[in-house]
Each structure stands twice: as C-alpha cells, then as structure tokens.
C-alpha cells in the first residue's frame, strides 16, 4: 500500500529509506558508503590517544560503514542510538543482559521466538534471573504478574509462528508505572509498519537478517533504544565486545534502500495467499493479523500500518492421521516453496512448527501448524504450488 505524504518538510517512507544514514557528498559523491575494514585505528599524537579525542578509536566501537547503518536505523526507529550485533537472537539476548541482574524477574511473552525462550531457561536461569511467561492477550492485566523485582517486560508482536497481536501501549503503560524496561522484537513489521518507541517501548529489536537485508545471505541484528535507556545498552554492548561487521552492515544498508517496495509485495502476496487458504476445507484456520477473521485484527488495524509476509495455517486431518506424517507429505508436495528456516528473503519458504515449548498458550489440536514465508514470486504460481501440496498431503 502506498500513500501520499502531505506532511510539510517530511519525506515518505520510501524516500526516507533511500536517503537515510549516509550523505554521498560526505565521501566524494559516491552513492553508497565505503566499506571500511578495520580493527586498529591510529591517533595523530599521544594526547589525542590518552583522551580518546577522535571519533573512531577501535573498530569494535564503530566504523564509518557501521555508523551509516546505525544512523539509518536511528532515523527509522526514532531512537537515541542503535547497536549492531551478529544476529537477531543476539539482539534480544544482549538487550536482556543490559537491563537484568541476578535476582531480577522478567516477564516474557509466551509466543516468544523459541531460541529466546531457551536463552531465558538456561543462561538467564544460571545467572539467577527468573523469566515468567505470560499470555500475549493479557494487555493491561499484566499488572497482576508484577513483583517488586520485575525489571523487564519483553514483547513480540506478532508472536512467533502463531502471530498473536499484543496491546503494546497498554503493556508499556503498566510496565513504566512499575519502573520496568519494555523491549520488543519488531522483526515482522519493521519500523515501516510499526514504530515501537512511538508506542511506549524502550528498546526496539530487529533481526536485520530478515527484511532489511532481504536476500537470505546476511546475519545481523539491531538494538535501538530511547534516550533514557541508550547509555546502559551501549555500555553493556561495549563490555560484551559484540559488533556487526562492515561487510554485513554494507549489505544490510543496501538492502534497506529497497525494503519498502519489497514489503509491499510481500504483504500483497501474503494477503492473497491467506485469503485463498481461508476458503479451503482442508485448512482449519489461517493465522495472519491482516485477516479480518484473526482474533487480534482490530488491535493490528489500530496500531500497525501494514503486514509482513509470514503467516501460518492449521492443516486439517481426519482425526486419526498422524500429524507429522500429514505435514511431511504437504511439505514434500511443494516445489516453489523451499524447505528452510528464517524468512524475509525473496524466496518463499515453508516449515512445520513445533509449539511443544509453550507454557501458557495451547497449541492447535486439530492438526499440524505450517508456517509460510511468502516471497516475491508471482502469487498465482505460489497458489498453484500450494494447491499441488494439498493434493499430495491428501493422497493415500
């Protein structure tokens, strides 16, 4: 979807993406920033070295290439600062380590990305930090879960694999009354379709591996904080010594320039596929926030400007058939959809979701859950491929 921007002195989202983070005339007019490979940075004299009196001191603290990407993300997020890390998972875990200490209690949404749950149940537990999982639909009632030592609330909207939409403003308002930090994994929507910091979130997290990079060949995460929480995040990252590489930063920044038009295609294709799936008798239900039938649709419509291209559906069975066998037959019947993890790239992907680690939410009981990443192919071809897979899954 596109819209006319009638705000004075403000650019539209695609114009912003094309220009954010780097002025070509800062480097001889070249339209892309140079890829600066570095570890050691030289100082002109001992006094400058002693007081760290220059912009760049060592490459773990930034280079012109990584700064160009951070500046672009700051502009998109409305953030006081952004750090780059090697993956989306690292972005979540570093944010947790920045704000949590032994003895603290954290509230984590039960639809969280599975590897984040593993981190909470293993690493955080070893550090004496308790993670408690909550229903994504809890809204302002999250107040009943707060304790005197609750220091962080982690949100993810839509939730991983089942796409629950959270009432982020309501949760943030409660958390701030209890002086807790609110973090959010906003990978699905990106700052184009939802700006977490505008809705009360303190720290916005993206797996840049997905839509910003866009080509299934780069791993990176970004963590962006508001002014109140930026310094603590920056200090924690400096202590951990984790940073994104200049080559990856260059690739993500280049992908960012076309993210707006790619997202429009992902969204249009996904909505067409979701509506087609809804009409099938071999689909129990479709999990996609942009559908009017989705339970969280009204909150999504209120807060979000668009939808990502990832959705799930429950594959119908006859009640006696083995769920895993039925799902495998469906996946093996696909030819255009690749079988692989992750999403956000140009190619469509499919996998079967295991929700066995959920603590609060009950997984679908009617059949296996299949997740689809809807890519940039012609949507008629994707639907034809899915149709063949349904036929294959139903064959004896």
Automatic annotation (TrEMBL):
NCBIfam families in the cross-refs: cysta_beta_ly_B (TIGR01324), PRK05967.1 (NF004626)
Catalytic reaction annotation: L,L-cystathionine + H2O = L-homocysteine + pyruvate + NH4(+)
N6-(pyridoxal phosphate)lysine modified-residue sites: 210
Family: Belongs to the trans-sulfuration enzymes family.
Keywords assigned: Lyase, Pyridoxal phosphate
SUPFAM superfamilies: PLP-dependent transferases
MF GO annotations: cysteine-S-conjugate beta-lyase activity; pyridoxal phosphate binding
Protein name: Cystathionine beta-lyase
GO term, biological process aspect, one: L-cysteine catabolic process to pyruvate
Top-level taxonomic group: Bacteria
Organism from which the protein derives: Rhizobium lusitanum
Keyword Lyase: yes
EC annotation from Swiss-Prot or TrEMBL: 4.4.1.8
InterPro entries, alphabetized: Cys/Met-Metab_PyrdxlP-dep_enz (IPR000277), Cys_b_lyase_bac (IPR006233), PyrdxlP-dep_Trfase (IPR015424), PyrdxlP-dep_Trfase_major (IPR015421), PyrdxlP-dep_Trfase_small (IPR015422)
Listed cofactors: pyridoxal 5'-phosphate
């Amino acid at each position: 979807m596109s819209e006319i921007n009638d705000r004075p002195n403000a650019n539209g989202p695609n114009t912003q993406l094309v220009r954010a983070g780097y002025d070509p005339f800062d480097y001889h007019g070249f339209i892309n920033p140079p890829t600066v490979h570095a570890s050691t940075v030289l100082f002109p004299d001992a006094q400058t070295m002693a007081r760290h009196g220059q912009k760049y001191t060592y490459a773990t603290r930034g280079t012109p290439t990584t700064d160009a990407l951070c500046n672009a993300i700051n502009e998109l997020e409305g953030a006081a600062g952004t750090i780059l890390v090697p993956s989306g998972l690292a972005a979540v875990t570093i944010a947790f380590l920045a704000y949590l200490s032994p003895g603290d209690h954290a509230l984590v949404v039960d639809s969280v990305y599975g590897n984040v749950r593993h981190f909470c149940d293993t690493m955080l537990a070893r550090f004496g930090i308790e993670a408690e999982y909550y229903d994504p639909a809890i809204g302002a009632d999250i107040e009943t879960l707060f304790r005197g030592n609750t220091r962080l609330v982690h949100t993810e909207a839509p939730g991983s694999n089942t796409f629950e939409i959270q009432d982020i403003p309501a949760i943030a308002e409660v958390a701030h009354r209890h002086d807790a930090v609110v973090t959010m994994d906003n990978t699905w929507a990106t700052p184009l379709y939802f700006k977490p910091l505008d809705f009360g979130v303190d720290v916005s997290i993206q797996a840049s591996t997905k839509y910003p990079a866009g080509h299934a060949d780069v791993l990176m995460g970004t963590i962006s904080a508001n002014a109140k929480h930026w310094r603590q995040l920056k200090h924690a990252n400096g202590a951990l010594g984790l940073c994104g590489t200049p080559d990856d930063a260059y690739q993500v920044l280049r992908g960012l320039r076309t993210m707006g038009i790619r997202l429009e295609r992902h969204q249009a294709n996904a909505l067409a596929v979701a509506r087609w799936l809804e009409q099938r008798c071999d689909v129990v239900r479709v999990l996609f926030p942009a559908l009017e039938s989705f339970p969280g649709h009204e909150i999504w419509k209120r807060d979000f400007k668009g939808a990502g291209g990832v959705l799930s559906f429950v594959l119908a069975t006859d009640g006696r058939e083995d769920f895993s066998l039925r799902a495998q037959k469906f996946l093996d019947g696909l030819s255009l959809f690749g079988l692989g993890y992750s999403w956000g790239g140009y190619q469509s992907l499919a996998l079967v979701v295991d929700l066995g680690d959920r603590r609060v939410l009950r997984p679908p009981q009617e059949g296996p859950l299949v997740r689809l990443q809807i890519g940039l192919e012609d949507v008629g071809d994707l639907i034809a491929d899915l149709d063949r897979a349904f036929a294959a899954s139903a064959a004896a």
